[in-house]
Design goal:
There is one protein chain. The chain is an all-alpha fold. It has a single domain, classed as Serine Threonine Protein Phosphatase 5, Tetratricopeptide repeat (Alpha Horseshoe). Helix content is 58%, strand content 0%. It is built from six helices and no strands. The chain has helices at 16-21, 34-43, 47-55, 60-73, 76-86, 95-107. Helix 2 runs antiparallel to helix 3 (47-55) and helix 3 (47-55) packs antiparallel against helix 4. It is globular and about 35 Å long.
Length: 108
């Protein structure tokens, strides 16, 4: 897939590899749900922007991404709160695996 064109594809049905290929683009895929956009910013090393996006999402997906971000930050009490809000158990997987699991679920 051409890197610059990837953001024009509908994200649902996009594979994890295709999402990762967009990380060299200037912006996340335009049709990406906000939770995927937050993960995109995180994968590019912009935790602050990822957190800004995630904290404005008022649903279980946003809470899950928010939890992951606080876990990554090392704020486990705050992460635990957000995992509870997401309805998911706190992850003990390596962060890279959790990112991929969340992204994969959100792309379905």
């Amino acid at each position: 897939m051409l890197a610059g064109l990837s953001r024009w594809y509908h994200v649902r049905g996009m594979t994890l590899d295709e999402l990762r290929a967009t990380l060299s683009d200037d912006a996340p895929p335009s049709t990406a749900p906000e939770a995927v956009r937050a993960l995109w910013h995180d994968a590019r090393g912009d935790w602050d922007e990822a957190h800004r996006v995630a904290q404005d999402i008022d649903d279980a997906d946003g809470a899950w991404v928010h939890a992951y971000l606080h876990r990554k930050e090392g704020d486990l009490p705050n992460a635990s709160y957000w995992y509870r809000r997401s309805g998911r158990p706190r992850s003990t997987s390596p962060l890279e695996e959790e990112w991929a699991a969340i992204a994969g679920e959100l792309l379905r």
